[in-house]
């Protein structure tokens, strides 16, 4: 008999002598929210919910109608169960506290209800990303600070990807496991147990239209990939960019690769494009649990102490050896920066372009 997500969660729960079942119930509610969004996404234009809403979120981005609906689904599906004390969403400026008519629990849920919003109207893969933290003991009305926990404090992280098939991929700190939605029985079936990222890769992902804003270490890494067999890497690389980090993450968990949305000079006020708490941290937990590495380019993402709910961060993740190479290029560049007068324009960092 195939193993369902429900069975997987119960078996995980049985491993913890003092487990109350609250965590299992929480993940089951998150699963239901993702199924509801999958059904909505599957309707496409028939849902009548394509296009932009006339609202702007805290990031200053125009919201799509589906951003708003997906957010509503996550809130309504998870608020009443009794496992949560509060939630944080990409689409809401302040934390959402569980209404008084519902019991409050010991967990905090942080999520990106719809990732890859720019793909929605063109029927491309999108997803939902979530991270679960413990609410500090004795806190029933969590304040912003209670959510600002480093990624290492996550008890669970995952995403749902709404593609040709709907999958849910998660970790509770014991490996990464992928479940495929069997639409006939409405249950997620364990189809990809113990995902491991391959040790080597010839695939990189970055939005090349930003190249003039990149810092030198990223320019060097991408240039060397593009030079391929004719350059210092001595082999050819291919490029992919889905414009939905959840889908780029899924590809990398399936067959390896390296994703970069680095800190750049496009908007110096922003430390990057992706959000630390509900995009970079949950993806980092998954990637590291699958044997990869997740970094800002300079340090592991999950050790970064968050300062605000919607802070952005430079993000590089995937096949460990490639991320370590990018980190080495940053260190070498920092060293070079301090000794610049000696090297002039002939250095490995000076881009020919
Ligand atoms: O438009 P760009 O620069 O390619 O950025 C794409 C990136 O932005 C995102 O769409 C941001 O996420 P949201 O869609 O949740 O806002 C990422 O998923 C994706 O990797
Ligand atoms: Mg997103
Ligand atoms: Mg989003």
Query: Quick one: CATH class of the largest domain?
Result: Alpha Beta
Output the CATH homologous superfamily of the largest domain. Fructose-1,6-Bisphosphatase, subunit A, domain 1
Ligand inventory reads:
1,6-di-O-phosphono-beta-D-fructofuranose, magnesium ion
Overall geometric form? globular
Helix content: 25-40%
Order of helices and strands: HHEEHEEEEHEEEEEHEHEEHEEEHH
Task: Work out the strand percent.
Answer: 15-25%
- Name the poorly predicted regions: none
End-to-end separation: 58 Å
Using only CA atoms, what is the Rg?
Answer: 21 Å
Q: How many H/I helical runs?
A: 9
Strand order of the largest sheet: 4-3-5-6-7-8-9-10
- The overall average pLDDT, rounded, is 94
Q: Count of DSSP E strands? A: 17
Question: What is the domain tally?
Answer: 2
Structural class: alpha+beta
Largest sheet: 8 strands, mixed
And the CATH topology of the largest domain? Fructose-1,6-Bisphosphatase, Chain A, domain 1
Under the CATH scheme, the architecture of the largest domain is 2-Layer Sandwich
Question: What report would you give on this structure?
Answer:
This protein is an alpha+beta fold. The protein has two domains: 5-192, Fructose-1,6-Bisphosphatase, subunit A, domain 1 (Fructose-1,6-Bisphosphatase, Chain A, domain 1, 2-Layer Sandwich); 203-343, D-Maltodextrin-Binding Protein, domain 2 (3-Layer(aba) Sandwich). 31% of the residues lie in helices and 23% in strands. The chain is built from nine helices and 17 strands. It has helices at residues 5-14, 22-43, 65-78, 144-147, 216-227, 245-255, 276-289, 320-338, 340-343, and strands at 52-56, 62-64, 84-89, 96-97, 107-115, 126-134, 156-162, 166-171, 176-182, 187-192, 203-205, 238-239, 258-261, 274-275, 293-295, 312-313, 315-318. An eight-stranded mixed β-sheet has the order 4-3-5-6-7-8-9-10, sandwiched between helices. Strands 12-11-13-17-15 form a five-stranded mixed β-sheet, with helices on both faces. Strand 3 and strand 4 (96-97) form a beta hairpin. Helix 1 packs antiparallel against helix 2, helix 2 (22-43) runs antiparallel to helix 3 (65-78) and helix 5 crosses helix 8. It starts with a helix and ends in a 10-residue tail after the last helix. Bound molecules: 1,6-di-O-phosphono-beta-D-fructofuranose and magnesium ion (2 copies). One magnesium ion is lined by residues 112, 115, 279.
């Amino acid at each position: 008999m195939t193993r369902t997500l429900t069975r997987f969660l119960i078996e995980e729960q049985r491993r913890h002598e003092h487990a109350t079942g609250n965590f299992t119930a929480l993940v089951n509610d998150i699963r239901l929210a993702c199924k509801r969004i999958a059904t909505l996404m599957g309707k496409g234009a028939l849902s009548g919910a394509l296009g932009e809403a006339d609202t702007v979120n805290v990031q200053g981005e125009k919201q799509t109608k589906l951003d708003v609906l997906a957010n509503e689904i996550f809130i309504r599906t998870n608020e009443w169960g009794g496992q949560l004390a509060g939630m944080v969403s990409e689409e809401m400026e302040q934390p959402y506290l569980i209404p008084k008519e519902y019991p409050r629990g010991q967990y905090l849920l942080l999520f990106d209800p719809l990732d890859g919003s720019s793909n929605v109207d063109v029927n491309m893969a999108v997803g939902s990303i979530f991270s679960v933290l413990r609410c500090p003991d004795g806190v029933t009305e969590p304040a912003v600070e209670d959510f600002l926990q480093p990624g290492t404090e996550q008890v669970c992280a995952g995403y749902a990807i709404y593609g040709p098939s709907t999958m849910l991929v998660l970790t509770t700190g014991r490996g990464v496991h992928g479940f495929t939605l069997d639409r006939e029985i409405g249950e997620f079936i364990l189809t990809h147990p113990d995902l491991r990222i391959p040790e080597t890769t010839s695939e990189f992902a970055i939005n090349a239209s930003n190249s003039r804003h990149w810092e030198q270490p990223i320019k060097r890494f991408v240039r060397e990939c593009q030079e391929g067999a004719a350059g210092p890497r001595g082999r050819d690389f291919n490029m992919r960019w889905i414009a939905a980090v959840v889908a780029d993450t899924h590809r990398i968990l399936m067959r390896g690769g390296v994703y970069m949305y680095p800190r750049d000079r496009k908007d110096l006020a922003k430390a990057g494009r992706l959000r630390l708490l509900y995009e970079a941290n949950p993806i980092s937990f998954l990637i590291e649990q699958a044997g990869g590495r997740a970094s800002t380019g300079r340090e592991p993402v999950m050790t970064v102490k968050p300062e605000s709910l919607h802070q952005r961060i430079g993000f590089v993740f995937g096949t460990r050896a490639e991320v370590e190479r990018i980190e080495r290029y940053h260190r070498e560049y920092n060293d070079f920066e301090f000794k610049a007068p000696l090297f002039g324009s002939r250095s490995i960092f000076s881009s020919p372009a």
